[in-house]
Structure formats: structure tokens, C-alpha cells
Amino acid sequence: MLSRLLNNNRNVLLKRTPVLTTKTLTRASMVRFASTTEPASSVKSKSNDESMNDRPSSMSGKKITLAVLSGAALAWGYIYYRDNYMQKAPQFISVTEELEPFLAQIGPSQYPLKTTYSLLGHGVRSVTFINFKAYGLAIYAADKDMKLIPKILNSNFLKKTFIDTDPEKSHSENVKLALEDPVKSVVLIRNLLDSGIRMCAKLTPIKSTNLTFVRESTIKTLWNHPDAEANKEVLSKGIDQLRKGYSKKGSFSPNDDLVMELNADGSLQFYYYNNKTKETFDLGLVTEPLVGRFLFSQYMSGPKPLSQETKDAVVEKISTMV
């Protein structure tokens, strides 16, 4: 598109601009040199024929001016394209070489999401003892809710009680340390999720699996939350909702996506995107807030996050926002 825009501008301008040849420029330069070295008396004594010889200099000057304007127009065309098209182009990030790059920003134009989300962090879920990469994971926060991150983590209560415990460090450094702590991080992320921040997670398998296996793995993740036992009854009802709604069966292939959208009320919407057919399927809505908040808490906090790499990236990003 850039080359087409520049060529169009160039073609229009070249139709209006005389071509500057080496001969023309050389002659113009010689005339200008002569005019600057002749004495004033010589200028006064010029004949009409000699005066006529000054015209090429004037014409060449016009040609040079037009050439400059032509170059300026081409430069302006590039700047216009850069500002209006290049900056709006999707930005991609590489999660792992086995997968297609992830979008740094996702929204209704890619999936049936309710708003636009920007990346907080990404990584890979690995089973270390067999050196097996399971899936790529990316965590996003709603653009309109980003302001909630500094608002919550800068609150006086959390700062005094959990965060600013080392007076030798800045608030940002203390936030990072607290989010790296297996106990404090659960408290801080819980407060953030309880604020109603909207978030989105994208899970993309590296090896072929199936949707049923992924659903059961998600349920296992919920039961592994540090607060699961204390909320067993409520969580059980939420998991029943998850099983009934998320009932689609079938293969889950590399570069397919499982997208989970956490709404402001804590409800969790599941979508499945088939990369081969380019179809998106609604896998159901879980209205019990504990399910969505526990799941995202497991992604971003606790002693055993699903992807340490993803959690570390999220922590790094959040610590720069406070």
C-alpha cells in the first residue's frame, strides 16, 4: 500500500514537473556563477542579446523549485501513510516459534468480544519434567479498565499492609516484589479482579489435543486455587455451570484459540476459534464470579501459576503502571 501511495503521488507530480537534466543544471550553475563574479559595470553594459541569455537561469530555478516541491510532496505522502495506516496496523508478538504470532491487541474485530483488550503478558505452559510445551498463553486487560491497575495497587490500605514493606525501594519495585510473592500476590490480584476489571485470556495449543481435555484441565486449575477449599460449595456450583455450558467436543489443534473473557460482574465467557475454518463458537457463559476470578488469579498469582513465564511478564508490566 505504501509503494502504491508513493507511486501515485510521484506520477501526478512528474506530469507537472519538467525533467531536470545534467545539461540544464550545469548551465544554470554556470550562469549563477557568472552573475556572482561579474563587476557591476559589466552588468549595466549588457546587450539585449546577453539579457536574453539570463532566461535559462530563471527557468532552471523554477525547475529546481518544482523538484524540491515534488520531493516534499512525496515525503508528505509517506508521513500521511505512516500516521494514518502504519500505526493502525495490527501489532504481533512472538510467543513461541511453534505457534503463529499473537496479536498485541484483540477485540470485536477478531473475536465476539465486548471491548478491546491490550496485552499484559504472554508465555508458554510447559511440563518441565518431560520437557513438553503444552500451549501458548496471553493475558490481556480492557483498554478502558487499565486505569484500575494503578488505582487499586496505589490504594493506601494495600500500600501500607502488603506492598511498601521495604522503605529502601520505590513503590514500583515493592509492587513487583509483592506480586512475585506466592502469598501476597494472591491478595493483590484478588483485589484487582474484585474491582471489576475486564480481562481476557487466549490459550493456543502447541500440540494437538481436544476441547474436553482442556475443559477438565481448566476445572483442575480452579480446584488448585489456594482459596478453593474455603469456597468449596460455591465453586462446585460454578464448575457445574462450566461443564454444562462448555459442552462442545472435538479436536483442539495448534493455532486454534480458546478465548476466555472475564466481564466486570465476574462472569466468564468461553469462545473457541477454529483456525482452519476461521469459525468462532460460543462455548457458554459461567455466571458464578468465583470461577472467572479464580481462573485469572491462577494465571497471574500464587505459588504455582500455570505458566511462570506468563506470570512473570504480567508482573513486569503491572509494576511499570503504578
UniProtKB/TrEMBL annotation:
Q: Where is this region: Disordered?
A: 36-59
Compartments in which it is found = Mitochondrion
Extract one GO molecular function annotation from the record.
intramolecular lyase activity
**GO cellular component: a single term:** mitochondrion
Query: Where would you find the membrane-spanning parts of this chain?
Result: none
One family from Pfam that matches here is: Chalcone_2
List the keywords (alphabetical). Mitochondrion, Transit peptide
Main location class: mitochondrion
- The UniProt record lists the keyword Lipid biosynthesis: no
Bias-annotated ranges (Polar residues): 36-45
Q: Is Mitochondrion among this UniProt entry's keywords? A: yes
Database matches in InterPro entries: Chalcone_isomerase, Chalcone_isomerase_3-sand, Chalcone_isomerase_sf
What is the superkingdom listed in this entry's lineage? Answer: Eukaryota
Q: Where is the Chalcone isomerase domain?
A: 115-315
Which family is annotated?
Belongs to the AIM18/AIM46 family.
Name of the protein in question:
Altered inheritance of mitochondria protein 18, mitochondrial
- From which organism does this entry originate? Kazachstania africana (strain ATCC 22294 / BCRC 22015 / CBS 2517 / CECT 1963 / NBRC 1671 / NRRL Y-8276)
Ranked from the top, the taxonomy reads:
Eukaryota, Fungi, Dikarya, Ascomycota, Saccharomycotina
